[in-house]
Amino acid sequence: MSENVKIVFEGKTYEFPVIVGTEGETAIDISNLRQMTGLITLDPGYANTGSCSSSITFMDGEKGILRYRGIPVEQLAEHSSFIETAYLLINDRLPAKEELNQVSVLFNDQSLVHEDMQNFYNNFPRASHPMGILSSMVNALRSFYPELQIIEEEINITVTRLLSKVRTMAAMSHKISRGHKVVYPRPDYKYCANFLHMMFDTPVRPYQINETLVKALEVFWILHADHEQNCSTSTVRLVGSGRVNLYAAISAGIAALWGPLHGGANQAVIEMLTDIQNDGGNYQRAIDRAKDKKDSFRLMGFGHRVYKAYDPRAKILKKMCDNVLDELYITDPLLDLAKKLEEAALTDDYFIEHNLYPNVDFYSGIILRAMGIPTNMFTVMFAIGRLPGWIAQWKESVDDPKWKLGRPRQIYTGPKETRYIPIDER
Ligand code: ACO
What we know:
- It is a single chain.
- This protein is mostly helical and 426 residues long.
- The protein has a single domain (42-399), classed as Citrate Synthase, domain 1.
- It has 18 helices and six strands.
- It has a three-stranded antiparallel β-sheet.
- The longest helix has 26 residues, at 152-177.
- The relative contact order is 0.12.
- Bound molecules: acetyl coenzyme *A.
- Acetyl coenzyme *A (ACO) binds at residues 45, 230, 261-263, 265, 290, 298-305, 354, 356, 359-361.
């Protein structure tokens, strides 16, 4: 396609080039629009705005496709590990065996957190949400590791440090919130097993590593590893565009993820299912409320800005819920309820007409419950998984020769110039 797009404004015609991506996605390049015409675009929620070109993740919302660096997420979930997938996203290729071993060694080297950080943890009020704590602590990492991130080597060490320490810090916040002693990582455990160990090992009951749960955690984190220009990733890019340090950009991404319309939905789904269960299992009432325009209630874990088909991640997680619960002989009434709710919603005219399908958050909480993860830690689990994506997108943006400070425009609708009225005259 070599056509230009023509805009006619005040009798003059302006031409703008059409940009075509590898998968045939098309966009009008309006980077000179204001300069040429004096116009800006208005696009609340950026639903039609491409903020960058990216070679990291491809998704097709109509067909339910998700690929990292071209590889379908289904293949990665089946064959890869979270660390290998993180390497793929950040370095643009799968690692060789030796490189992967080297990464494991580096992760072990970096897995401890400065002991002074415990003082911060101990001083958060007990009721603090773990997402608020994680966001603050990631920002605080900069004070403990203030190296400049200018040369490649320093960026690499910061990336390794973040990926390894965030896992330790998340487990620490759980332990401290329980009033338990912090558990140190074990050098003989890999990434996911080590996390479960740090979360659940106690002096009175040593944690036994369960391979079914380790695999489930690998898959959970692989499926969350990137999702192109979503709310938190765009936040990381925007904050990073001011050339702030990586810790601060990631800390902002964690804060953005916290919201219930974004990553916080995984916690909200379990709370919603629990409320329905307490209401005698009346899921039809939840569906009716979600359809009622006078009611602000939405079916949590349903709908997506891009997917207008079944979210491919939700498909994998739904199947995994059954496998994990079967293999561990667990029965969870919330899984049965979730399935009934899904079935009723998918055959309801409102949900059909609005293309509302379960998203990644609908079934993920059931798996996290099976692992023993407390509900208020669910979004932290999402954040650990999304970290490689945020890092990859940040790296791509700072390396981009077309890099620009993020700075949208607006249409002003306030008062015209008006006189200041002294206080006695008001
Ligand atoms: N329940 C009921 N109605 C819904 C839902 C829902 N979960 N989601 C969207 N709708 C309806 C809206 O009411 C609106 O209806 P209308 O056109 O008749 O007024 C229409 O669908 C479009 O909704 P928007 O909010 O404009 O769509 P948008 O693309 O902005 O929303 C979002 C996407 C925020 C995810 C939305 O579907 C939602 O709130 N879902 C519930 C929260 C959730 O699960 N979030 C996690 C998303 S995945 C992630 O971020 C990790």
